[in-house]
């Protein structure tokens, strides 16, 4: 909502990407307060937001879904972002709502981020169809790996000066600085791969709505862990191509996850593989069969794979893979968030900033943490089934 931040975009290199008539700002932001974003700006700008949404929707030939891209730690992203989810659900109930949520790291600079994140989580639980949680720390680790590769000279020689991974002076960004443009670029690549089937031809295209249909067996458990390979899809970095089979292995390693998680040692409910480039269906099948023994799928969905092939690879690469996993490995992120919330809430620290906003009561906090605890418990129950044997399903007898 901060006018200055949006104006920076309008004066920057991306200004032509946005329709300036579709931008909404206030003078100041939400002051890192979920209640201001949700209760104040939400009410204030609801009609204006709806009018602009309807205008955009009218231009669509086939409206597949809405993407909401927001951060959880601040006030506007968490508050107004989740208010918007409810508005979309009421106005366009048939259209899927995909949310890319950037979760705060333990060392973030917003003291109230645990409050904002927990309050936003309740809304995500209730009003989102699919949530792709992304962790600031994971993004930073990925960019640090790029720095290491650049410094070790493993890249080849083509690195543009003044690129996203280099500073304006042409020297590499120091590791302690947070290169937000490069971090955002990783998220952009996730979304590019996710929408590739809608934009390009392919032998096995996947409709966005199929993701939710195939990967979300229970409405509450709609959090999908994403991994990208090659990870370094910044178009201006000359990364050597990974071998095809290696690419599939990478997608299941914890180093390639966009959230700090280890899906290989947790339970899969379902998994989607979205491949781009010159890859055959037989390559997909071979790699799934190769990886299956090392992955633990829930007993009632041992064949829980969804695949798509798009023939156009990302710029500068021969092929790429986006894996989306509905996996219990997201649970530690939620537990850590709840812990950080409780540390503040036990002392009632900073609570008055929220309670002075009209419509905000202390019960909102208790309901939000209760909603998160219920979600964690659902994951616990699934994890408890990990040692159960896979059911031998009876085969259909055909009389000859």
UniProtKB/TrEMBL annotation:
<dbReference type="InterPro" id="IPR023123">
    <property type="entry name" value="Tubulin_C"/>
</dbReference>
<dbReference type="Pfam" id="PF03953">
    <property type="entry name" value="Tubulin_C"/>
</dbReference>
<keyword id="KW-0547">Nucleotide-binding</keyword>
<comment type="similarity">
    <text>Belongs to the tubulin family.</text>
</comment>
<dbReference type="GO" id="GO:0007017">
    <property type="term" value="P:microtubule-based process"/>
</dbReference>
<dbReference type="InterPro" id="IPR000217">
    <property type="entry name" value="Tubulin"/>
</dbReference>
<keyword id="KW-0206">Cytoskeleton</keyword>
<keyword id="KW-0342">GTP-binding</keyword>
<feature type="domain" description="Tubulin/FtsZ GTPase">
    <location>
        <begin position="1"/>
        <end position="202"/>
    </location>
</feature>
<keyword id="KW-0493">Microtubule</keyword>
<dbReference type="InterPro" id="IPR018316">
    <property type="entry name" value="Tubulin/FtsZ_2-layer-sand-dom"/>
</dbReference>
<dbReference type="InterPro" id="IPR008280">
    <property type="entry name" value="Tub_FtsZ_C"/>
</dbReference>
<dbReference type="InterPro" id="IPR036525">
    <property type="entry name" value="Tubulin/FtsZ_GTPase_sf"/>
</dbReference>
<dbReference type="InterPro" id="IPR003008">
    <property type="entry name" value="Tubulin_FtsZ_GTPase"/>
</dbReference>
<protein>
    <submittedName>
        <fullName>Tubulin epsilon chain isoform X2</fullName>
    </submittedName>
</protein>
<dbReference type="GO" id="GO:0005874">
    <property type="term" value="C:microtubule"/>
</dbReference>
<keyword id="KW-0963">Cytoplasm</keyword>
<dbReference type="GO" id="GO:0005525">
    <property type="term" value="F:GTP binding"/>
</dbReference>
<dbReference type="Pfam" id="PF00091">
    <property type="entry name" value="Tubulin"/>
</dbReference>
<dbReference type="InterPro" id="IPR004057">
    <property type="entry name" value="Epsilon_tubulin"/>
</dbReference>
<dbReference type="InterPro" id="IPR017975">
    <property type="entry name" value="Tubulin_CS"/>
</dbReference>
<feature type="domain" description="Tubulin/FtsZ 2-layer sandwich">
    <location>
        <begin position="204"/>
        <end position="339"/>
    </location>
</feature>
């Amino acid at each position: 909502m901060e006018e200055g931040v949006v104006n920076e975009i309008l004066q920057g290199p991306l200004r032509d990407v946005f329709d300036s008539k579709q931008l909404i700002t206030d003078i100041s932001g939400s002051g890192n307060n979920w209640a201001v974003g949700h209760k104040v700006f939400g009410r204030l700008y609801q009609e204006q937001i709806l009018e602009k949404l309807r205008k955009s929707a009218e231009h669509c030939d086939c409206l597949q879904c809405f993407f909401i891209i927001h951060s959880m730690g601040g006030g506007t992203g968490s508050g107004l972002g989740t208010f918007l989810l409810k508005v979309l659900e009421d106005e366009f109930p048939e259209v899927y709502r995909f949310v890319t949520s950037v979760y705060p790291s333990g060392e973030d600079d917003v003291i109230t981020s645990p409050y904002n994140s927990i309050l936003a989580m309740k809304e995500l639980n209730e009003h989102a169809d699919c949530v792709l949680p992304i962790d600031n720390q994971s993004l930073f680790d990925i960019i640090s790996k790029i720095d290491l590769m650049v410094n070790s000279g493993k890249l080849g020689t083509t690195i543009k000066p003044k690129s996203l991974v280099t500073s304006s002076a042409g020297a590499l960004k120091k590791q302690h600085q947070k290169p937000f443009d490069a971090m955002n670029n990783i998220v952009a690549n996730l979304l590019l791969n996710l929408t590739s089937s809608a934009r390009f031809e392919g032998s096995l295209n996947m409709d966005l709505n199929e993701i939710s249909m195939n990967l979300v067996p229970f409405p509450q458990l709609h959090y999908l862990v994403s991994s990208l390979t090659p990870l370094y899809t910044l178009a201006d970095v000359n990364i050597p191509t990974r071998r095809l089979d290696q690419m599939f292995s990478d997608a299941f390693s914890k180093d390639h996850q966009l959230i700090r998680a280890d899906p290989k040692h947790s339970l899969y409910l379902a998994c989607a593989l979205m491949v781009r480039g010159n890859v055959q269906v037989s390559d997909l099948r071979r790699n799934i069969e190769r990886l299956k023994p090392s992955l633990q799928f829930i007993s009632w969905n041992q064949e829980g794979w969804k695949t798509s092939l798009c023939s156009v690879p990302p710029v500068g690469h021969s092929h790429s893979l986006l894996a989306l996993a509905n996996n219990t490995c997201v649970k530690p992120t939620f537990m850590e968030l709840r812990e950080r919330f409780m540390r503040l809430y036990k002392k009632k620290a900073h609570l008055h900033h929220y309670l002075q906003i009209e419509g905000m009561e202390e019960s909102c906090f208790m309901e939000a943490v209760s909603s998160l605890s219920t979600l964690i418990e659902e994951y616990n129950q699934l994890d408890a089934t990990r040692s159960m044997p896979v059911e031998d399903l009876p085969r259909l007898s055909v009389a000859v």
